[in-house]
Amino acid sequence: MPRTLWEAAMALLNFRKREKPADTPVNGQVEAFLKDYSIEVMPRTAEKVEDFRALLPEGTRVYIAHIEGTPIEDMVATAKRINAEGFPVMPHFPARIIKDRATLTDWIARYQGEADVKQALLLAGGVTNPHGDFDSSMQLLETGEFDRAGFTRLHVAGHPEGNKDIDPDGSSTNVDAALRWKTKFNETTDAEMALATQFAFDAKPIIAWADSLREAGVTLPIHIGIAGPAKLQTLIKFAIACGVGPSLKVLQKRAMDVSKLLLPYEPTDVIAELAAHKAANPDFNITNVHFFPLGGIKTNATWAIENGGASTQPVNPA
Fold first, then answer.
1. Each residue of 216-253: pLDDT tens digit?
2. By residue range, what is the domain housing residue 279?
């Protein structure tokens, strides 16, 4: 038994998670809930993955986050590479960094011409001041460019814990109005639409938010954002930067437990609770899981497979 706090800390640091034994049963509810999950990458993180077929189930949707300052050439090259490996790609179109309609149509043409992109996530983007004509995803939708280009799927952002960029007073007034507008727009487009949300860590506020949308007449399916396994310090940093509020308490509580402080966070509890709710309520409007691999794509993909995600494709050595 360690004699000092330092020795106890070192013992925790030296703890290594054992692989799930082959005979450990997978939670069937979680397995069903993880079916058709998606994952998000950036060009710089995608570069570190030798072959996505070694990590992801066949057909996994891969979002490509467009961070301010990333050249469109890098975004398109990443989309082309991932598409060539057999995965449908969904690049971000952040309204506030798109200068004008000509830029928008150019991006669409590049993605379609070089990477056969048919899906997009439209969002305002994490920029305070717009670079040009667009301020919101609604303005991008209103151009009609995505319908003209034949996009088959369009996702828009959801915020289970609100968004202070949109509602500085802490309410959900503007966010809710935007969701009603997007629900109405869904009736006018041939593309399938859904909400892809910011990540959260506590199932109860997520369930309450999803239920409130249904009650308000927002019928878009929800692809719930979940942070993948990562160091606790990493998650707290991202949570603060992304404005994650109420469920941040889950991480803060964990940080106060020395037995958990030095161990990686895993989304086991939040996914298990959501999966159980889905199993008990089949018409629950959360239909898919969308992973933010904040601790690394390989780490996240391995966790998903160990917890019931579909097996990966065989990699063609040629």
1. 999 999 999 999 998 877 776 666 665 555 556 666 66
2. 24-306
